[in-house]
Amino acid sequence: MTEQAVAQWLRQNDNFLILTHIRPDGDTLGCGSALCQGLEKLGKTAYMLRNPGGLRNFEGFLTFRWAPEDYVPEHVIALDIATEDLLPQGAHQQYRGKVEVCVDHHPSNEGYAQELCLNSSASACGEILYRICRELEVLDEAIAKALYIAIATDCGGFIYSNTTPETHRIGAALMEYGDFRKVNKHFFQTKSFKQLRLESMVLGSEVFFEDGKVCIGVISLADKASVDADDGDCEELASFAAAIEGVGCAATLRELSPGEWKASLRSVDTYADSNRICGLLGGGGHAAAAGATVHGSLAEVRQVVYQAIMQVLKG
Ligand SMILES: [Mn+2]
After folding, report:
1. Which is nearest to 145 in space by CA: 186, 195, 106, 87?
2. Ligand 1 mean position to 203 CA, how many Å?
3. In the Cβ-directed half-sphere of 146, how many Cα atoms lie within 13 Å?
4. Between the CA of residue 231 and those of 134, 184, 228, 252, 256, what are the distances in Å?
5. Which CATH number describes the domain made up of 3-188?
6. Residue 80 confidence (pLDDT)
7. I want to staple 31 with a disulfide (CB 3.0 to 4.6 A). Which of 79, 121, 163, 186 is the partner?
8. Separation CA 79–CA 104 (nearest Å)
9. Distance CA 266, CA 287 (A)
10. What's the rounded Cα separation, in Å, for the pair 244 and 234?
11. What is the pLDDT of residues 200-241, one digit of tens each?
12. In which residue ranges of the chain is CATH 3.90.1640.10 found?
């Protein structure tokens, strides 16, 4: 499905429900917020499905219109959600097999929706939503800000390897609508003291392999509890590990619940395909950044992740 076709479908229909992914990031939330506001401007009824994930980092920057409990949508659209396994908590029973249109940029998208608008060269789903909103002629300062947050956060402030000339062009076009300096300060130049303490714990846990090119770090539930941190405080830890000089592949294992770990992979300069590594672990994402959920003791999970990395490096 092309971006124009998505815009047309949105114009022709009404009563939408917008889905964002579990453990929501700036991309999925920024896209949801932008689309919801855009549809509202067109006189449509549109809500986002309440996402119980950590939203604190976005307070004061994004506005959300959550669906009332009894809302019955006619059309369900998923944004930045590569597989139905990434639907937010509580949405699985109701919305599995019910997504009519999915707009995404993950090459690992499983094609679960009836119609898929996929552009894997987009740095963020926000790039695709930008073109859809432009097509719908709804762009204004609030929508531009939401899309700017979506794009800037998914490309690390226009720094990650997914950043393209088009990413900058769209960022520049969005900046014409308002002053987003506060957005950049908040998302890229500010860390809570908790986050910095978590970073020091991850650093202390790093184990290096392959002459320092591969590292595996850990953040346990006990670590998180010791500084009273939540998942939102942990979001940037995976990218942080990839900043260590000489590292080509950084894996960060974060304990979600006892025996359940989120493995986040980051690759530098295409050293190892994170999407392939996570694919071996039952997850996915992009070549530069991907994730998977792995079960077992820390020792088991560390071993399984190490083997997946080595399999991709040697293969
Ligand atoms: Mn994304």
Report:
1. 186
2. 26
3. 23
4. 34, 21, 10, 13, 8
5. 3.90.1640.10
6. 98
7. 79
8. 6
9. 8
10. 17
11. 999 999 999 999 999 999 999 999 999 999 877 888 899 889
12. 3-188
Tell how far the Cα of 49 is from the centroid of ligand 1, in angstroms: 18
Q: What is the mean pLDDT of the chain?
A: 96
How close is the Cα of 238 to the center of ligand 1, in Å?
15
Quickly tell me which residue has 């401007």 as its tokens: 41
Mean pLDDT of all residues in 61-86: 97
Which CATH number is 193-314 given? 3.10.310.30
CA of 82 to the centre of ligand 1 (A): 9
Find the 24 Cα to ligand 1 centroid distance in Å. Answer: 10
More confident residue, 102 or 52: 102
Nearest to 25 by CA among 293, 309, 291: 291
- Cβ neighbours of 27 (radius 10 Å): 27
Residues of 281-304 as b/e, b for ≥16 C-beta within 10 angstroms? bebbbbbbbbbbebeeeeeebbeb
Determine the Cα–Cα distance for residues 276 and 265; give it in Å rounded to an integer: 10
Please give the model's pTM, rounded to 2 decimal places: 0.83
Report CA(298)–ligand 1 centroid distance (Å): 28
